[in-house]
Amino acid sequence: MKQLLLALLFLTALPVSAQDRGAVERQFRTWLEQVVWPRAQGGGVSRATFDAAFAGVTLNWDLPDLVPPGTAPPERRAQTQSEFRSPARYFRPNTVQSTARIGRDMAARHATALAETTRATGVPGHIILAIWGRESGFGRVAIPHNTFRVLGTKGFMSTRAEYFTNELLAALRIVQAGHIAPGAMRSSWAGAMGQPQFMPSSFETYARDGNGDGRADIWTSEADTIRSIGNYLARNGWQAGRDWGFEVSVPATVSCAIGGRDQGRTISQWEALGITRVSGRPFPAAERNGEAFLLMPAGRFGPAFLVTPNFYTIKTYNNSDLYALFVGHVGDRIAYNVGDFTAPWRPVDDLLRSDVAAMQRGLVAQGYDVGGADGLAGFKTRRAIGQWQVATGQAPTCFPSRALVNALSD
C-alpha cells in the first residue's frame, strides 16, 4: 500500500504543462513497476511474463478519453452528433447481405465445430455465426492494436483507469496461462480481443477450447472462437429450443406504448390482441406458451417484433436493441435464407442527442419514466413518448421527432 501511495503521489506531482511526453512515458514505466507489477505478481503472473508483455510498449497517445498525469478529466463533450436518423442505417443492405452470404459459407466450412458447440451449449450455430460476423467479419477484419499498449495506456491515464487496470491484469493472467504469446495478443482500441471481441475479463470467464489443443485461442482458431461465443450466450441465459423473435404486424388498436422487457406476455396472449406474424405463418406451437415482448425500435416508423428472452441474451453481448436485432435477422438469413424485413424503415427526423435528452427531461418533469435523460431512445423513452401522445390526444408513434422536441424540451 505504501508503494502504491508513493507511486500515485509521484504521478500527480507535476502539471502536464511542465512535462513532455518523454517524462510521462517514464512515469508510465514507474506505474507499471510500482502499481501493476505487485498486483500481477499477487495474481500468479511471473516476472518473465510481465517483462515480455511490456517489452517495447509505450503509451498510445491517440486513444480517446485520456487523462495525462497532472491534468483534469476532459469536460464532457456536447452531445451534438446526429443519433436518430432512421435505424435503417444499421441494416444497410450490403452489410446485411454480405454478412449472411459469408455466414452461409462459414456454416458449411465449420459445420462440425458449430454442431459440437450447439450440442454442448444449446445455442444455434446461425446465431453464433451472426455474432462472429458482426464482431470481426468472421476474423477477416484487422484487429490492429497491441493489447498491452491499449490497456496499459488506458489503465495509466484514462477516465476509467481502474477498470482498464483490472483488464490489463486479466490480460497478463491469460498470457501466463499459456493461451497466447503477449506479442500476438491483439485488440481493438478499447481492448476488446480477437475474433469474438472479448475483453480480457470476459475471456477468463467465457473463452473455451474448441479444437482440443488445450488453449482458448480466439485470435487465430475458428473452432475456439465458435465455442467461446456459444459458451458466452449459454452462460448468459440462452434458452435452448426457443427462437430469438419474429417480425410481426401490430394492429392500430394495439398501442406501441406497451412494448418493453418489463411487459412480457405469452405469445398466445399477444395473438389474442391481434398480433400476427408478417409471414402469415402461425407461431410455432412450442413458442405459443413462452414469454415474449413487443419490440418496436423505431416506434410506428419501422418494423415490429415479438422477441423472446433469447433476444435479451444477445443484448448481453452488446447492449443495443439494433445490435441484437441485426444478429437475429442475419442469423435467420444464414439459416433460412429469408429476405429483408417485410415492413420498411420509414424516414424519421434527424435529431441531436442533446435534443432528445432535453425532450426526456421534459417528459420526466411531467412524471414519465424515460429510463434516464441520456439522449438515447430506449424502450422506456419510446413508451413514455407514446403515453404522453395518448394523454394529449395524439396518435402514438413512440419515437422522437422534431415536433416532440419542440413541445417537450425543458
Protein model, in words:
The chain is mostly helical and 410 residues long. Among the domains are: 2-70 and 144-193, Helicase, Ruva Protein, domain 3 (Orthogonal Bundle); 353-408, no CATH class. Helix content is 46%, strand content 5%. It is built from 16 helices and 7 strands. It has helices at residues 2-11, 21-42, 47-54, 93-109, 111-121, 125-136, 147-156, 161-176, 200-206, 222-235, 267-272, 309-315, 321-336, 353-365, 379-391, 402-408; strands at 145-146, 186-187, 245-249, 265-266, 276-277, 291-295, 304-307. A hairpin with an 8-residue loop joins β6 and β7 (304-307). Residues 354-407 form the Peptidoglycan binding-like domain.
Label this structure with key terms.
16 helices; disordered N terminus; mainly alpha; two-stranded antiparallel sheet; 410 residues; 7 strands; Helicase, Ruva Protein, domain 3; 5-stranded antiparallel beta sheet
Topology, please?
Layout: H1 2-11, H2 21-42, H3 47-54, H4 93-109, H5 111-121, H6 125-136, E1 145-146, H7 147-156, H8 161-176, E2 186-187, H9 200-206, H10 222-235, E3 245-249, E4 265-266, H11 267-272, E5 276-277, E6 291-295, E7 304-307, H12 309-315, H13 321-336, H14 353-365, H15 379-391, H16 402-408
Antiparallel strand pairs: 1-2, 3-5, 3-7, 4-6, 6-7
Helix pairs in contact: 1-2, 4-6, 4-13, 5-10, 6-10, 6-13, 7-8, 8-9, 12-13, 14-16
Measured on Cα atoms, how large is the radius of gyration? 24 Å
- Proportion of strand residues: 5-15%
Question: Quick one: CATH class of the domain at 2-70 and 144-193?
Answer: Mainly Alpha
Proper CATH architecture of the domain at 2-70 and 144-193: Orthogonal Bundle
Low-confidence stretches: 1-18
Instruction: Tell me the major beta sheet.
Output: 5 strands, antiparallel
Helix content: 40-55%
Organism: Thalassorhabdomicrobium marinisediminis
GO molecular function, one term: peptidoglycan lytic transglycosylase activity
InterPro entries: Lysozyme-like_dom_sf, MltB-like, MltB_2, Peptidoglycan-bd-like, PGBD-like_sf, PGBDSf, SLT_2
Domain Transglycosylase SLT: 27-332
